[in-house]
Design goal:
The structure holds two protein chains of two kinds. Chain A contains 22 helices and 17 strands. By secondary structure, chain A is of the alpha/beta class. Among the domains of chain A are: 4-219, von Willebrand factor, type A domain (Rossmann fold), CATH 3.40.50; 237-254 and 326-419, Ku70, Chain: A, Domain 2 (Beta Barrel); 430-462 and 516-521, no CATH class; 575-687, Serine Threonine Protein Phosphatase 5, Tetratricopeptide repeat. A seven-stranded mixed β-barrel of chain A has the order 7-8-14-17-16-15-13. Chain A has a six-stranded mixed beta sheet with strand order 3-2-1-4-5-6, sandwiched between helices. In chain B, the strands form five sheets. Chain B has a seven-stranded mixed beta barrel. The longest helix of chain B is centred in the first third of the chain and has 20 residues, at 188-207. Chain B is globular, with a radius of gyration of 31 Å. The chains are: A alpha/beta, B alpha+beta. Chains A and B meet through β8, β9, β10, β11 and β12 of A and α3, α6, α7, β5 and α8 of B.
Chain lengths: 697, 630
């Protein structure tokens, strides 16, 4: 694998001093990451705007003043990190006293630095290491330029740019503006911009303007991951039209590094100890925990509801879903048929096959037509052979405004029917008036949204994701560096600059404090809790917690009457209904017991008062409903004891015929299967009356 | 689960941790009784709408198919929930209390209220055919009798829901009926008695923590009048009553859709505080409306007994070979040192905010680029823990953000990965009476610069000139786009063929069936449509305008020299083929000595024979043996 050679070209002139601490942080972070992920990469440091001059070109050909090679190109190490953490400043007067000698320069200082860097790379690598030679320039480009004797400035820059391309060098230029640069002559800055733009056009230069410290942090790529194709092949529009593309990941979460487990078993002074921990997995039978089951006796079980279905790998291979590799178009649709929140995963980029002009044109035509018509394409993708699933994705155009970047597409993965939960939420329109904002409040919200603007017109967007670094990762790498020097170092606080990502910008709030104040005042009142009406919000519906407001549903008059006359005791006319009403009364804890007791008495009365069994059916009815009630209220003992007692009572009173009647009607004790608290088994319950009968005989 | 990361569906790039963090806490279980009215009225097909729809869809059929659909998604997504299916107004009876007119449908090896099984789903699918024979429909409330089937049904359902504590389990009764006046056939005191008793029964159930929800079925020309009886039963009031009814619709399909949606209970992921400015914050609930459904975790079984195996993890010090406790220190190599971290330090590094959302500002929606995405979004809706005032703030911001075309930028995200999020206000969308998009805000997780790759810019240094399409080419492309239009495309109308296949296989095996039903892959392009003359013509014209007349040559033409990588691949294959000849594979296979070779050696065979080289050693050996036909 080829190693990257990177030269950092840092402007340390007086006007840069205020931002140098930020530059020190981001550059040392870059090198720290290289120490972890690309520890064989090489790095060198070139400073310009210095008082001194120290580079090979100046001794060889003269000129190239105020350019210092701080570190020659070498494999990354702690020395470079330390050098970057303490960059020497140029003359530190803080005023323009340095300018007189800078004016003396014939070439723009930036160009001098670039030439010095090119020279270093060429001397070290020659024609080798193509595409892996990288320069990274950070400057505010405020140096005035004087006419060159050798030709116009444009020609100069173009010549340098051509040379860079020939040698396969890439350059990133980060130009500081706004808060990061001091007030400078606008004419000088424009002139510089124009020249730097030539670089961007002629070479593979990434030219970035940043105007705040967070963006400076994010703009410098601290870790370059070589893109790997996810798929190369055709987008199939139909069997007759295929366009050759390359698919890459456009976003992919950079994870917190996974750390190894540490073993402290080896003696502390053992220099060769790896400190590694091996993790072993053993599969053991659940019946015999001492028995280890060998791998060839293991089979995978897939859950399906409560069942686990065993399938061997070979079987699974034979029956599983095996889609054919390829990317196929399903069709085009209005872009508003796919909403932003449907995007499921990280994003892919579709680029034309390199060197294939026709594919480039075809994609460009489609992308531009789709953009114009507000359409998106729906694709079905199977990236690899043997992949066991398909992706349905939405393809959106990504038009390029740069001359050396082709039009391309982004693909976002869409959900399948199984992935969507169709929860329903109450409409805001149905809410009571007190929940809805009034005109004044709407206006306050309107003002708040307009003033807390993170993308003000004509200015750079704040917190642009492309330029916003992950503060946690930064903190980890910084801590790692601290620990390498002092193992007992404490966790450092979040970097001051990056802390601004996590909280609102104080300046913005301060500027707009009038609007914020009026917003707060519009919503100042404490308000009433919503909880009372939580049903409306789809909370758990609970009848008892809500007071019924009468006027909405006109209840039948007789119902109201009936409801208002509360049943207090079990009467003679409708004992079954009375019992049910009584046992379901919830305005006191005693009603259940009361209902059961009253019913017991009623049944005794009925049986005792019976003449030749004329009350038996009614008594049975009562017993059945009592039984039901006791099951439901989980009072099986009440019923079982009562039935036993009743039967004994009947036998004593020579009322065996009632027991016979109950037996013939199949009345039984309440067994455990019907009420968990019962101590009676099924058999016992069923045979209770039969047994008592036989006893008597 | 630590058992095995060898998941069947996962892309190589997918990270198991990330998958895991997406699984929200769904520990709360749900017990549901589907209470379906089986009265003759449910079987009427006389409503004119049904005739227009051509198929004789009865309300009974709609209810049954909604339940069947829900069961199928439940066994995949929420298989720990328990269900019972209970019919009332039936001829036969089967229930715990032996009540008349109530029939609990069940299958072997399952309690009445239990987790859904493959058998339940299968037999339930065929229930309609045998319903009249085995269960039968019958009017339950007839004048002159004391029978009250609705009362019985609620009682039976309540008895079914007796198990489990109401604190940990959500208990619900879902009542399907098209009879808005169940006691309409009787009059006088008996009627009021029955009404009173039934309402009391329902109230009792609700007091025990059981919620009763009504899923009314509508006749287009005779709307279901909730206030007739059911409003009291389920405790409805106020504006909600208006909102409650699925809007009268002429299409049964729409009604089915509405019912299906209402059968889900919302489960929130968590509550969070959204700080707008200092001193003003609103309480929100977050919901996972879109999450990838993946097959459940694999359990290892003993292939002889089919008993589940327990996986035991042991930690061994690589230096001394000693067994050890799970280490609490982590290490990272850096500058030839081993830097160690305690778990406490690691969590301190990650602790940036306290898990709440902080508003940072607003941006126009055009700033939300298509590539700002990493994982599924989360839906935010005001919590009922708040006040009417916080609701006001939410609605005011919601309304104005939509009006001004802006989204909010906030800092939040999970504690394991604090990050910037975009809050996009979504207006409620209602189509044919059912809610397609709920009103609220979608939280979209934004990438950091570290997560974005510069693929387009890297591209520019590998190729020469870049050209953009001409106006004519764009016009031809536009014609093509017009031709291949997916009318009314809606996200998630396609089912996942891999998942469907997976569960079809499992279902067949679980029921010991020989045939695995063929699934239709809905994700394939419409070949017939693409072959229509209009489409073909547009395709040809586009092709000609871009490729000229030599499309085939241009496209087949192998562009440029073989790349570095392809040269390397070729060299590798040649090397492997040569190496491969040094082994007597047949002999090794027959004597079982393949496992003694290293994976590198085994891969010579695979590469030489053009087989995939992925997988563990075990899998590789199996592949070699399969290829040799042994």
């Amino acid at each position: 694998k080829q190693k990257e050679a990177l030269l950092l070209l840092l402007d340390v002139g007086p006007s840069m001093h205020s931002v140098l601490p930020e530059i020190e942080k981001v550059c040392s972070l870059l090198v720290q990451k290289k120490l972890i992920y690309n520890k064989y990469d090489e790095v060198g440091i070139v400073l310009f705007g210095t008082e001194d001059t120290d580079n090979e070109l100046t001794s060889e050909v003269g000129g190239y003043q105020h350019v210092v090679v701080l570190k020659d190109i070498k494999v990354v190490d702690g020395d470079i990190v330390e050098a970057l953490q303490q960059l020497p400043r140029g003359k530190n007067d803080g005023d323009s006293s340095i300018y007189p000698f800078l004016y003396a320069l014939t070439l723009m200082l930036v160009l001098d630095a670039v030439i010095v860097a090119m020279d270093m790379l060429i001397k070290k690598f020659g024609e080798t290491n193509k595409g892996k030679k990288r320069m990274c320039l950070i400057t505010n480009a405020q140096y005035p330029i004087k006419e060159s004797y050798k030709g116009t400035k444009e020609e100069q820059v173009t010549t340098i740019a051509k040379q860079m391309t020939v040698h396969g060098m890439r350059m990133e230029s980060i130009i500081l503006r706004g808060k990061l640069s001091q007030d400078a002559n606008k004419g000088i800055m424009d002139e510089n911009d124009r020249l730097l733009n030539i670089f961007s056009k002629e070479t593979s230069t990434r030219l970035l303007y940043v105007d705040n410290p967070i963006s400076l942090f994010g703009a410098l790529r601290t870790r370059n991951i070589t893109p790997v194709t996810v798929f190369r092949g055709d987008i199939e529009f139909s069997p007759k039209l295929k366009i050759k593309v390359m698919v890459y990941k456009k976003t992919s979460e950079e994870k917190f590094p996974s750390l190894k487990k540490y073993s402290d078993k080896a003696p502390p002074n053992d220099k060769h100890a790896t400190r590694d921990v091996k993790v072993d997995y053993e599969y053991k039978s659940s019946e015999d925990p001492d028995k280890v089951v060998p791998p060839d006796r293991r089979i995978k079980g897939y859950p399906y509801g409560p069942q686990i279905v065993p399938i061997s790998s070979a079987e699974w291979e034979a029956v599983k879903f095996k889609p054919e590799k390829g990317v196929k178009l399903l069709g085009f649709t209005e872009s508003n048929n796919v909403l932003r929140h449907h995007y499921m995963k990280d994003v892919y980029a579709f680029l034309p096959e390199p060197g294939n002009t026709k594919a480039m044109l075809a994609l460009s035509a489609l992308a531009r037509a789709m953009k114009e018509m507000n359409k998106v394409a729906i694709l079905r993708c199977v990236w690899r052979r043997g992949q066991s699933n398909v992706i349905i994705g939405v393809l959106t155009p990504n038009l390029s405004d740069r001359e050396n970047i082709p039009d391309s597409f982004y693909l976002n993965v869409l959900p399948f029917a199984e992935d969507v939960r169709e929860f329903q939420f109450p409409s805001f329109t149905n809410f009571p008036a007190s929940w809805l904002p009034n005109e004044l409040q709407l206006e306050a919200a309107d003002n708040l949204i307009k003033t807390l603007d993170l993308a003000p017109h004509g200015q750079q967007e704040v917190l642009l994701p492309d330029f916003t670094p992950n503060p946690v990762l930064e903190r980890f790498y910084r801590y790692l560096e601290l620990k390498s020097k002092d193992p007992d170092a404490a966790v450092p606080p979040l970097d001051d600059t990056l802390k601004k990502i996590t909280e609102p910008d104080g300046d913005l709030l301060l500027q707009n404090r009038a609007v914020i104040g009026s917003f707060c005042r519009s919503f100042e009142l404490k308000g009433n809790p919503l909880k009372k009406s939580r049903r409306l919000l789809g909370g758990k519906r609970s009848f008892s917690s809500v007071d019924v407001e009468g006027n909405i549903t006109a209840q039948p008059a007789n119902l109201i009457e009936n409801a208002s006359v509360k049943v207090e005791k079990i009467g003679d006319l409708t004992p079954v209904q009375d019992f049910e009403a009584l046992i379901s009364r919830r305005d006191g804890p005693d009603w259940v017991v009361k209902a059961i007791n009253e019913m017991k008495n009623k049944i005794f009365d009925l049986v005792e008062d019976s003449h030749e069994g004329d009350n038996y059916p009614k008594a049975l009815e009562c017993l059945v409903v009592l039984r039901k009630g006791c099951i439901l209220e989980q009072e099986p003992k009440q019923f079982n004891d009562f039935l036993r007692h009743l039967c004994n009572f009947c036998r004593e009173k020579k009322l065996n015929s009632f027991c016979d009647y109950l037996a013939s009607e199949g009345l039984a004790l309440i067994p455990k299967t019907e009420a968990i608290d019962s101590e009676v088994t099924d058999d016992e319950a069923r045979s209770f009356l039969v047994k008592s009968e036989s006893k008597v005989v | 689960m630590d058992v095995d990361a060898d998941d069947i569906f996962r892309d190589d790039e997918d990270d198991p941790d990330a998958q895991h963090s997406l699984l929200e806490d769904e520990s709360s279980k749900e017990y549901v009784v589907y209470l379906v009215d089986a009265s003759p009225k449910m079987f009427n097909t006389t409503c004119p709408a049904a005739e227009q729809d051509q198929n004789d869809e009865t309300h009974f059929h709609i209810a049954i198919s909604c339940i069947s659909h829900t069961l199928k998604s439940q066994i995949i997504n929420r298989s720990y929930d328990q269900v019972a299916i209970c019919f009332f107004n039936t001829r036969e009876k089967k229930n715990l209390q032996d009540l008349n007119g109530v029939y609990v449908f069940n299958v072997a090896e399952r309690e009445f209220l239990d987790r859904p099984t493959a058998r339940l789903i299968k037999e339930f699918d065929h229930l309609e055919e045998s319903f009249s024979k085995s269960i039968g429909s019958q009017h339950g409330v007839v004048s002159g009798t004391q029978e009250n089937s609705l009362y019985n049904a609620i009682w039976a359902a309540q008895a079914l829901l007796r198990k489990g504590s109401a604190k940990t389990v959500d208990k619900r009764i879902l009542l399907f009926t098209n009879e808005d006046d169940p006691f309409g056939s009787i009059k006088g005191a008996v009627k009021s008695d029955m009404t009173r008793m039934t309402l009391q029964r329902a109230k009792d159930a609700q007091d025990l923590g059981i919620s009763i929800e009504l899923l009314p079925l509508n006749h287009p020309n005779e709307a279901f009048n909730v206030s007739q009886f059911y409003a009291d039963l389920i405790g409805l009031e106020g504006d909600y009553l208006v909102d409650f009814m699925p809007s009268a619709t002429n299409r049964l399909e729409d009604m089915k859709d509405q019912l299906r949606k209402r059968m889900f209970t919302k489960r929130k992921v968590k509550s969070l505080k959204f700080t707008i400015v200092n001193g003003i914050s609103i309480q929100l609930n977050s919901y996972a409306l879109i999450r990838p459904t993946v097959p459940g975790a694999i359990t290892w079984l003993d292939s002889i007994t089919n008993c589940p195996l327990k996986c035991e993890r042991t930690f061994i010090c690589a230096d001394t070979g000693a067994l050890m406790e799970e280490p609490i220190t982590r290490l990272h190599p850096y500058k030839n040192q081993n830097i160690t971290f305690s778990m406490k330090q690691l969590s301190e590094i990650k602790r940036v905010s306290i898990g709440h959302l902080h508003l940072l500002g607003f941006k126009p929606l055009s700033c939300l680029r298509d590539y700002y995405n990493l994982k599924p979004s989360t839906f935010l809706y005001p919590s009922d823990e708040g006040t009417d005032n916080s609701m006001c703030i939410f609605i005011a911001l919601h309304r104005k953000m939509i009006q001004l075309n802006r989204f909010a930028v906030a800092f939040g995200g999970s504690s394991s990965r604090p990050q910037l999020v975009a809050l996009v206000a979504q207006e409620e969308v209602i189509q044919s009476g059912s809610q397609i998009e709920p009103p609220g805000m979608h939280m979209i997780y934004l990438p950091y610069s570290d997560d974005i790759r510069l693929v387009e810019e890297r591209y520019s240094d590998s190729s020469g000139m870049v050209t953009k399409a001409s106006d004519d080419q764009i016009k031809k492309a536009a014609d093509l786009i017009k031709r291949i239009d997916l009318k009314g495309f809606s996200v998630c109308q396609l089912t996942n063929p891999a998942l469907q296949r997976h569960y079809a296989v499992l279902q067949a095996l679980a029921l010991a069936e020989d045939d695995i039903p063929e699934m239709k892959d809905e994700t394939l392009p419409d070949e017939e449509g693409l072959a229509r003359p209009g489409v073909v013509r547009a395709l040809e014209e586009f092709k000609t305008s871009v490729y000229g007349d030599n499309y085939d040559e241009e496209n087949e033409h192998n562009t440029g020299e073989p790349t570095e990588a392809s040269k390397k691949r070729k060299a590798n294959a040649e090397f492997a083929t040569k190496e491969c000849e040094n082994y007597d594979w047949g002999e090794l296979a027959d004597t079982g000595k393949l496992k003694d070779l290293t994976v590198v050696e085994l891969k010579y065979y695979l590469t030489a024979n053009n087989l995939p080289v992925s997988g563990k050693k075990e899998a590789i050996i199996t592949r070699i043996l399969t290829h040799m036909g042994k």
